[in-house]
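Usage

Read records sequentially. Each one opens with the input sequence:
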Amino acid sequence: MHHTAKPVGKCHGCGLNLGERCGIFESPHAMWQTHNVCPGYLNDELLLTYQESMAHKDANVRKEKRRLVARMRHDYAHQTGDRHVLLAARH
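and closes with the structure output:
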């Protein structure tokens, strides 16, 4: 059997089709071979599950903290005229 993560032509139009891979299944080709229709094809429940899992993956606390400190430094330096300001991240 053909083992690849790349979606097949029948996956066109599915929300889980990410172009180079399927959002849920490791082998979309096998899904179409073993079933008449892929269980993930146009399945809104699986699409919502995938989107929720990706939303949690994108939450990066350290990155947000760095952005906040950078904004604080940028604003503070312009208000006081001092270009070399060290600010501690406040919670």
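Summary fields computed downstream for this record:
- The two ends are 54 Å apart (CA to CA).
- The helical segments are 28-34, 44-58, 61-80.
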